[in-house]
Queue: 4 jobs
Job 1
Amino acid sequence: MLSGPKGSEEAPALQCTVCGRESTLVELPGRSEKYCLECSADVATVILLQSEIDAAALAGKHIDGLVAEFTQLSNRLLERAQSA
């Protein structure tokens, strides 16, 4: 018997950690959360941007463009999470 909602024999639905959509989920390396394809792309990009911002700041380079892109992606993820 599969475990699901109380009294059912259905498998529990898999939901994206960010948006809550029931979808095919993927895991990102080093993360325990599971994401839908759209959210996983944004989360992966945010992770890369964090590294690029840190490296550019340490090198004394201009980071405003990277920070703006990071902010835009973060806001998009936050909107998806809040609408879930």
Job 2
Amino acid sequence: MLLSVGQLGDANLVEIHDGLLVYSYAVRGVAYTASQDVSKLKPFVPEDIALLGPIGVKYDPRNPANSMVLAEEWSGLRPIA
């Protein structure tokens, strides 16, 4: 659902721990901290990912707490420049 109707926004990757990405973002002045288990999406995680810092996020405009940073068809993870 988030792939098709999710709003794209900016987030900050704050922690990586055993396949769990912890990130924060703000929508309409409200700050959110969320996590996504990407252990089953390992083939889609870029090898040269920046360890921490800016990433993209897709969130549900009706429920901004529902978000993701990685899926099979989309990635908000940014490689090291």
Job 3
Amino acid sequence: MTSNTSSGATAPDSIDDTEKPEGPIAAAMLAAGLGALALGILTTLAEASESFKEFLNVYDPVGPLSGKTIGAVVVWLIAWAILHVMYRTRVVESRKELAVSLILIGLGVLGTFPVFFQAFAPA
């Protein structure tokens, strides 16, 4: 059943305002932050260690970037799967998870800046 509003449009009499779990959303946000942090850590470690840089060279035309991105995606997928199982039925306030995710993403981006990761290069 609908009711008329002053503009002539119809609106439903009742709106489904039941709380839906935000756990899966929080899990996705946290996993994205962890994936970004993994990329920053792998970038910094590749600069700090020549043997680790060679280990990350999965595909020669791309160089160690191939291993860095593959590693970050693997961390993201595993984190998302684990966190989704942990959070799937939880009703959470996702502001805290968003804040943590933004911090993790910021740290990950920091780890990809040359000024930062070159500070760890052997002299």
Job 4
Amino acid sequence: MEELLRTTDPTLVPFASALLRGEGIDCFALDTNISSVEGSIGIFPRRLMVRTEDLDDARRVLRDNGIEPYEPEAWL
């Protein structure tokens, strides 16, 4: 599994999930219940994961819909 999206916007993960599933790409949301720990103030990001083989297609779907996917910084 690869991390596709990391956001503190609680509406973005369900929206991105719907877009991906509409394209036949399976995804899995992590950290969706973190609000019970943080008191619903939105400081902890939610993550959306996809299969490694679907990562490039999933990034394309998000970008085509105006969502910038998460890409870890390359370490030198």
